[in-house]
Design brief:
The protein is of the alpha+beta class and 451 residues long. The protein has eleven helices and 15 strands. The protein has two domains: 2-172, no CATH class; 182-216 and 251-352 and 360-442, YqgF/RNase H-like domain (Nucleotidyltransferase, domain 5), CATH 3.30.420.140. The longest helix is centred in the middle third of the chain and has 32 residues, at 245-276. It starts with a strand and ends in a 35-residue tail after the last strand.
Length: 451
């Protein structure tokens, strides 16, 4: 399996200037090649593939400004973009409802500010430096040091960002399947906002786990506050700018904070599954679940800014790397249905929205962090949603003996929690109990209870 090691190149780093000039030359070749392809496709109704473009541009200054292997990768990248456009158009003609709009032609990059991807294959990597675990490539020389074995490195990519470059070392990693995983034992994960993920299992004695979503919300809230201030200052200017270097910096910082927390949380979830010997992970995801959201201005902003899809992708590749099977299911109505009452889960139709004919009815309702059903003690709403997700995926009938194994057992514990007084965004990780009773006066778990 292929993995990526990332290194950030800031403007203050030595190789930044040379990388920036090379990325600009890559942009020039992209625009020139894309111009010829677009003109041929629009006016002559013929497509020029990467081979035809190579023979057309191999004597031009834009092509010679880059090493031959790197220039060929630019043409291959452009060919892949056009191939993806043709494939998307075929699907769009048959199922336009799967798209938010008509697929567009590959576009040009900005004439002065645009930068393009640089790809260095094995032939463009200097082997003598790689033997000492140093990444050195054609025309740039030494860039960064790598922790990977020299024989595992396959490719080096330099990706342009708003205010920096990211050097990606692509390497081949060995699959290390965890021993003792039982595919019949499963965990269902229900994503959320305040609780980023709720985990439940059919394993006897497994306590539900909650991943605290507070740091993600806090990072987004601070980012929105700073972004609003900077945009107001730009609006007062005479040149009517919409972006600035400071905006790029705070956006980059927010992205790094987000990815750090998601990577840490996903790794701890997978480690928990391996320790418990659980071999199946069920994830809930809806198509277009971030479009046409009507949760109110405040809650909509909180929901749409959390990269749930990225979080699920991280969980998927990390689970598959250790041999855990991943099942992705439709997630509609999990917060409204009652697991213990066997509420039927209808399939939500995004085209009809609230106007769909079947109006589902459920046994209870959600109030804050609790799910209430008349005549029964309240259950934690996120834990109930996770159990509903597992019930919907496997259609387990909670009757007889199985209901005992499916009932929430004990108190859910937080995988992540920020203590008061901690300055770091992630705070301290601990196992803190969440009380299932409504009043703290009747709680007997001590000061570690955060219910």
């Amino acid at each position: 399996m292929r993995r990526v090691e990332q290194h950030v190149i800031e403007k203050t780093h030595a190789p930044f200037r040379a990388i920036d000039e090379m990325a600009l030359a890559s942009k020039n070749l992209w625009n020139l090649a894309n111009y010829h392809v677009r003109q041929s496709f629009i006016f002559q109704h013929t497509y020029l593939n990467n081979t035809a473009i190579f023979h057309l541009l191999k004597q031009t200054q834009a092509y010679k400004a880059l090493p031959a292997k790197v220039a060929n990768q630019v043409l291959l990248h452009l060919h892949g973009s056009w191939t993806a456009f043709f494939e998307a158009m075929e699907v769009y003609r048959e199922h336009p409802e799967l798209f938010r709009g008509r697929p567009g032609l590959p576009t040009y990059l900005h004439k002065t500010q645009g930068r393009n991807l640089l790809v260095f294959e094995w032939g463009s990597i200097w082997k003598a430096d790689l033997a000492h675990r140093e990444i050195a490539v054609s025309q740039l020389g030494r860039i960064v040091e790598t922790k990977q074995h020299p024989h595992s490195v396959q490719q080096v990519r330099i990706v342009p960002k708003a205010d920096h470059y990211v050097v990606e070392v692509v390497y081949q990693a060995e699959e290390r399947r965890a021993p003792g995983l039982d595919p019949d034992l499963l965990v269902a994960l229900d994503p959320g906002v305040n609780v980023l993920a709720a985990l439940t299992s059919n394993k006897p004695g497994f306590l539900p786990r909650l991943v605290f979503g507070g740091p993600v919300k806090a990072a987004n809230q601070l980012y929105n506050k700073h972004r609003e201030h900077e945009q107001k200052q730009l609006a007062k200017g005479k040149d009517h700018r919409f972006t600035s270097h400071r905006l790029d910096r705070i956006t980059t910082k927010r992205h790094r904070r987000m990815m750090h927390y998601l990577h840490t949380a996903s790794r701890r979830i997978i480690d928990l599954l391996v320790a418990e010997g659980i071999g199946t992970l069920i994830l809930g995801k809806n198509p277009f679940w971030k479009q046409q959201v009507e949760l109110g201005k405040k809650h909509t902003q909180e929901f749409v800014q959390i990269p749930h899809a990225k979080f699920l992708d991280l969980l998927t590749y990390k689970a598959e790397a250790v041999g855990i099977r991943v099942i992705v299911t439709e997630e509609s109505y999990t917060s409204k249905a009652s697991f213990l009452d066997r509420d039927v889960l209808p399939i939500y139709d995004p085209k009809q929205g609230a106007d769909q004919e079947e109006k589902p009815r459920f046994s209870g309702r959600r109030e804050g962090r609790w799910y209430r059903v008349k005549g029964r003690a309240p259950i934690h709403a996120d834990v109930n949603g996770s159990y509903v997700r597992r019930f919907g995926a496997y259609q387990i009938s909670p009757k007889g003996d199985e209901v005992e194994g499916n009932k929430p057992q004990g108190h859910p514990t937080y995988l992540t929690r920020k203590l008061k007084g901690e300055n770091s965004m992630l705070g301290t990780w601990l196992n803190a109990k969440v009380c299932s009773v409504m009043h703290r006066k009747s709680c007997t778990h001590g000061e570690t209870c955060i219910g």
